[in-house]
Amino acid sequence: MRNLIMALTASTALAFPAMAEDVRIAVGSFNLNNLPFPVAQGLGLYEKHGLEVRVDNFASGGSKTLQALVAGSTDVAVGFYDHTIQMQAQNKEVVAFVQLARNSGLVLAGRPDATFDPANPETIKGAKIGITAPGSSSDFFVRYYLQRHGLSDADVSLIGVGSGGTAVAALQEAKIDLLVNYDPAATIITERGIGKILIDARSDEGAIAIYGGIYPTSVLYSRQDFIDENPETIQKVTDATVEALRWMHDHTAEEIVDVLPQEFVTGDRDTYVKAVQNAMAIFSPDGMIDPETINTPLEVLKTFNENVANAEIDLSRTYTDAFVENVAPAEVTQ
């Protein structure tokens, strides 16, 4: 399969424009919510659509990616939709334009001897909880859970541990008691017997139980001024990414892993394939942002983010489907 993909990519290379357009894209982590982005890279789709992509990886979490975007040191961010709401509360226009993951994908895991019992929320008191980074969606997950059960962040210790292998190691080495993270970390933890999943929001049912609704997560977003000044660039990024999403839904987890840049594969390949399979339900089939679901992140943020709670948030200004709607129906990798 890998040889076939390489052959297909090589054949399309002849059609690539001689002068590709530079675009800087920052990604917050290697968690699987962001998977469509490296799939597009591995298939050569950004090059196919006339782009030369420079990737900045902030493995410590999405909040660093957001900071880079706002500071102007990157053009496009691969991050979580809820950051667009936070930025509007700070009078900064950050807009999502392609949805990658339509649901949370988060889990809360503990070691085999974990004393936290979700049926008795107070047992979380005193726990050292690993999150990707302060201000990240894993941080929001914990704070919202605590708030819903009459607890606060003062009842636990929140520790940034990144994602993927570093997050798993923090749990395995007992640097933390609990871990809030995504696949592939979630699957690695269970496959290796490092721990167990205590709260699972990868399914729609799990997300509804935790958040009260579907919680859209990974998107491509940019500053409104960059979008206004560079609509053709944004359209090319969208064309390539939507093509990757469509390709993913027509291929198996093993075929998806075959095309990934090697640095995105965490742990052994077989476990990573299982992680991709476990995460398939969260990926958007078409890149469209559903206006029926984006109120869930707003309600979560309002419970503990004073800036958001006190702001008049206009969700229609946090996203656009215009670029996805312009993607040609025929733009599908065979």
TrEMBL record:
Gene Ontology CC: periplasmic space
Signal peptide start and end residues: 1-20
Keyword Signal in record: yes
Gene Ontology terms describing biological process: alkanesulfonate transmembrane transport
Predominant subcellular localization, coarse grouping: periplasm
Entry keyword Signal: yes
Pfam families recorded: NMT1_2
Protein family per UniProt: Belongs to the bacterial solute-binding protein SsuA/TauA family.
Protein name, UniProt field: ABC transporter substrate-binding protein
Organism: Paracoccus caeni
